[in-house]
Q: What sequence folds into this?
């Protein structure tokens, strides 16, 4: 599958996962794809933790309420640091977003499924702080996303219907043909 087909076929998968471990080499390749993403002023504000230890995964999943990705055999947690990149600007949100998209594409390319869980763990109940404590994450980092990784136990499905190209993209000015 070429990259454009891969982009069009990727979907957020929220279903059950097969009970099949994800090889460490595949997790490494996924994380390398994330770390290859662009970074504002090359400040490299994004870091990653892959979790494939079943007992540690159980502890992390127990801290997430309502539950998500309960059967995923692995997860990648995305960490961000607030580092000023240019004048008074920090681009950590852009940095980690680019890293996450690269990883989602790598996950799909390697035959796995995933879903970008951010708001669920960074909401007012601050599940991210519980996860950080379990993983001994230093205070200057914050967990911003959890990506489950695994083989889908059922067909992912078609995904949501997207608006027509002409409703969201134009040439040479807003609303132009």
A:
């Amino acid at each position: 599958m070429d990259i454009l087909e891969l982009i069009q076929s990727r979907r957020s998968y929220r279903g059950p996962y097969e009970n099949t471990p994800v090889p460490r080499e595949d997790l490494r390749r996924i994380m390398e794809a994330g770390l290859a993403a662009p970074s504002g002023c090359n400040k490299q504000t994004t870091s990653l933790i892959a979790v494939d230890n079943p007992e540690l995964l159980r502890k992390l999943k127990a801290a997430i309420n309502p539950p998500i990705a309960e059967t995923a055999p692995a997860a990648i947690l995305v960490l961000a640091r607030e580092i000023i990149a240019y004048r008074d600007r920090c681009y950590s949100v852009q940095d980690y977003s680019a890293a996450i998209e690269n990883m989602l594409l790598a996950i799909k390319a390697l035959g796995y499924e995933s879903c970008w869980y951010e708001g669920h763990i960074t909401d007012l109940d601050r599940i991210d702080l519980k996860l950080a404590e379990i993983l001994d994450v230093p205070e200057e980092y914050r967990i911003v996303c959890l990506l489950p990784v695994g083989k889908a136990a059922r067909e992912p499905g078609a995904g949501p219907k997207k608006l027509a190209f002409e409703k969201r993209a134009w040439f040479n000015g807003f609303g132009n043909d």
In short: The chain has a mean pLDDT of 94. The beta strands are 46-51, 74-80, 84-86, 89-90, 142-149.
